[in-house]
Amino acid sequence: MTQQQQHQGRLAFIGGGNMAEAILGGLLACGYPLSQCVVSEPIQARCEFLQSKYPGLQTLSGPDANRLAVQGSKSATNTQSLIQDGSIQVNATAASIEFAPAEVVILAVKPQVLRNVVVDLAPALRALQPLVISIAAGIETSAIARFMADGVDEDAIAAGSVKLPPVIRVMPNTPALVLEGAAGMYATADATPEHREVAESLMAAVSKQVSWVETESLIDTVTGISGSGPAYFFLMMEAMEEAGVKLGMDRATAKALTIQTCLGAAKMAQLSSDDLETLRIKVTSPQGTTDAAIKAFEAGGFRDLVQKGVTAADARSRTLAKELGGAKL
Ligand SMILES: NC(=O)c1ccc[n+]([C@@H]2O[C@H](COP(=O)([O-])OP(=O)(O)OC[C@H]3O[C@@H](n4cnc5c(N)ncnc54)[C@H](OP(=O)(O)O)[C@@H]3O)[C@@H](O)[C@H]2O)c1
């Protein structure tokens, strides 16, 4: 994604944890002006850390921080009075404590606290209609809509007299922390192509692969493939390292060879026009060493095991969605 294509509007991060930091790092690497970003985060020390690591970034903490991050502050005087009465702590240069309302709000808190956070922000979100991007695992867009509709008559929403902001749900994965993520995205019907583009350009800052799914239930499958997937490869690598050690190799060498093999195989798969099966067949000479290993894997039910693992993650994601999101609208 080039800098020209990338959205450069005002962004508010609600929650300044690992994933928010990964996205900030990716945006910085893409040349995104971090002075356009504000992070609301309850831990003051974390705010200070983020602000020192990402110069120009504004961070807010305190009881009113989330709302202020979304609504913006019309004047430095307003902000100063909020600072004085203890409603917020601001980490920013004195000149930059006036900020415009957010065009995009990234919900980057743990799923367990998302309901309270969104209910508290609901009036501001309804008034300002930013694009809402949620990276919280397991919380469906219908649940987020229900939280944003808090306190509003359902008929008013059905009649269109009260509008809810568009929501895009993203399932990133941990390699985003090293800018090598893979993310699945789902947009509600009211998200426009422009909203999709904005979300895609932001997520592409940390995810080399960004894929849209057309039904929300496929986000659970994204979780089963790429969300939980890094751990499957860690398990495979652990097992290969251990096998090398049992055959007499020192652990450091077994680990280094395993990791580079995993990386090299992924790179070949990515760069080649061959499908995965063809790539495997090409490196498997009949009666050769690879053939011997593959036959042992197949005889042990390898494919079946992988199917069971991915299906278990998909099913667990659906269960968590029910537990965390509660009843549908
Ligand atoms: N990490 C991943 O690989 C990954 C992958 C897929 C999806 N996700 C999703 O990404 C989201 C963030 O994950 P994470 O790993 O970045 O978690 P995290 O490091 O715990 O970050 C969440 C941050 O939000 C802060 N927070 C808590 N309550 C808040 C509130 N009321 N208002 C504003 N901020 C608040 C937390 O502060 P405290 O520490 O004080 O609670 C914490 O700094 C989660 O919903 C997770 O499901 C993460």
Provide mean pLDDT, rounded.
Answer: 91
How many extended strands?
9
Could you spell the SSE succession in H and E letters?
Answer: EHEHEHHEEHEHHEEHEHHHHHH
Protein structure class? alpha/beta
In the CATH hierarchy, what is the architecture of the largest domain at level 2?
3-Layer(aba) Sandwich
Q: Note the beta-strand portion.
A: 5-15%
How many helices does DSSP assign? 14
- Gross morphology: elongated
CATH topology of the largest domain: Rossmann fold
Strand sequence of the main sheet, in spatial order? Answer: 4-3-2-1-5-6-7-8-9
Helical proportion, percent range: 40-55%
Bound ions, cofactors and other small molecules, one mention each: NADP nicotinamide-adenine-dinucleotide phosphate
CATH superfamily of the largest domain: NAD(P)-binding Rossmann-like Domain
Q: Which residues form runs of ≥5 with pLDDT under 50?
A: none
Into how many domains do the coordinates divide?
2
Termini separation: 36 Å
- Reading off the top of the CATH hierarchy, the class of the largest domain is best stated as Alpha Beta
> Main β-sheet, in a few words?
9 strands, mixed
Supply Rg. 23 Å
